Amino acid sequence: MGFLLAPGESWMDTRSGSQCSVTPEAILNNEQLVLPPRISRVNGWSLPLHYFQVVTWAVFVGLSSATFGIFIPLLPHVWKYIAYVVTGGIFSFHLVVHLIASCIDPADSNVRLKKNYSQPMPIFDRSKHAHVIQNQFCHLCRVTVNKKTKHCISCNKCVSGFDHHCKWINNCVGSRNYWFFFSTVASATAGMLCLIAVLLYILVQYLVNPGVLRTDPKYEDVKNTNTWLLFLPLFPVQVQTLIVVIIGMLVLLLDLLGLVHLGQLLIFHIYLKAKKMTTFEYLIKTCKEESSKHQAVRKDPYMQMEEGFLQQGDGALDSSAQGVKAKSSLLIYKCPCHFCTSVNPDRGSTAREADDAPSTSTLGLQQETTEPMKTDSAERKTEIQELRCPCDPGLPP
User: Fold this and answer.
1) Maximum pairwise Cα distance, the chain
2) How high is the pLDDT of residue 32?
3) What is the mean pLDDT of each run of 10 residues along the chain (397 residues)?
4) 19 forms bridges with which residues in the sheet?
5) Are 383 and 327 in contact (CB under 8 A)?
6) The pLDDT of residue 124
7) Which residues is 171 bridged to in the sheet?
8) Rounded CA gap, 357 and 359, in Å?
């Protein structure tokens, strides 16, 4: 990703001539620390190239070579020309829109007009600003941006109409290149469907009548029916049937895997367009819904434990030591906050400390086990409420 400013390092603002201190800001992505690049990326061809991008182009070249060099030449004359036109048109369209989606700079218009991409970018200093973009002004790009503009950490620049950062094209997808990205996905899906149709036709014809697949004039000189020609008509290469079968199975498997992933992506973006949402907005909405569900699920066990604790009555907790242990367990379970210390008001120490080293009050309770303390349900409920974590939302202090 390039070199980053070290903690305490400063950068020079060439426009104002002032020196600004910055602090590295990073995010966690799949449990890995992701740091923004020091130099903002212009488009999908800005170094370093992502290995997903390399895999994408390798697969495209491989499938194109196999489709037009091996399988389409095996079709009968009429179907061969139809396949060349239809499949060739789809693959060519995909190549064009894929290149455009990768080459376009999706940055905000003010960023493209005022930003100098050769200058190093500061890393966001959260001690000075709560957010990168405030009141439609980006504190990193130092320009006024549109309402739907977001600052991408992977490209380290503001992207207009930010949808997501795509690793397969190694570029951000925004309002400037979204439809080229969508066309890339749609054309790739259509091309893979055409390739599957060609492969299935060849498979059926090989099982029914293999001679139908040997209509090219070059086969007149081939007497062995177990020999096939690849890369017709320009560079015929003789291979055995097993080689063609292996290549066909590998291509079919790769095609099916790509079709599953691209098909899901295409359906997802069709759904987003129907809902008039971006991928970023969908993820934010999903996170909020999951957070709300998590809070609701987290509240339910508390209420269930409280009700079960009260329903047990006096006979379920005949021992005062058992009652203390139940209260301690409940206290540990109830406190989800990692930044507070829950204190038992009866003992002046945490429940975890009580399990390791009994306090004076606990020893006193253990001495009175011969005379079990019987407390009514109302008093038990009061004790449970006192043990609740005050930082837990939705629970009384």
Assistant:
1) 106
2) 59
3) 33 36 43 76 93 95 94 90 95 97 95 89 83 92 92 93 95 96 97 95 91 87 88 88 93 94 96 94 91 76 49 44 46 38 36 37 39 47 43 38
4) 12
5) yes
6) 82
7) 166
8) 6
Q: Could you tell me how far CA 125 lies from the centroid of its own chain?
A: 25
**Which pLDDT score, from 0 to 100, does residue 66 have?**
94
d(CA 330, CA 312): 15
Residue that the structure tokens 């977001």 belong to: 150
Measure the CA–CA gap between 67 and 96, rounded to whole angstroms: 18
Residues 234 and 127: their CA atoms lie apart, in Å, by 66
pTM of the full structure: 0.67
Q: Are the C-beta atoms of 123 and 4 separated by less than 8 Å? A: yes
Q: Which of 168, 134, 170 minimizes the C-alpha distance to 151?
A: 134
pLDDT the model gives residue 332 = 39
Active-site residue (options: 138, 166, 172, 194): 166
Indicate the burial class of 162 (C-beta count within 10 angstroms; 0-12, 13-18, 19 or more).
buried
Sort 305 into a burial class: Cβ within 10 Å, 0-12 / 13-18 / 19+: middle
Cβ contact 49:223 at 8 Å: no
166 an active-site residue?
Answer: yes
* Helices 360-367 & 320-334 angle (0-180, nearest 10): 140
Q: At 201, which amino acid appears?
A: Y
3-class DSSP string for 181-231? HHHHHHHHHHHHHHHHHHHHHHHHHHHHCHHHHCCCHHHHHCCCCCEEEEC
H or E element in which residue 157 lies: strand 157-159
Instruction: Say which residues have a Cβ less than 8 Å from residue 227's Cβ, sequence separation at least 6.
Output: 238, 239, 240, 241
Contacts for 198 with CB less than 8 Å, ≥ 6 apart: 67, 71, 72, 75, 83, 87
**Helices assigned H by DSSP within the chain:** 51-66, 77-103, 109-114, 178-208, 241-275, 279-311, 320-334, 351-356, 360-367, 377-386
**Residue 383 to residue 397: CA distance in whole angstroms:** 12
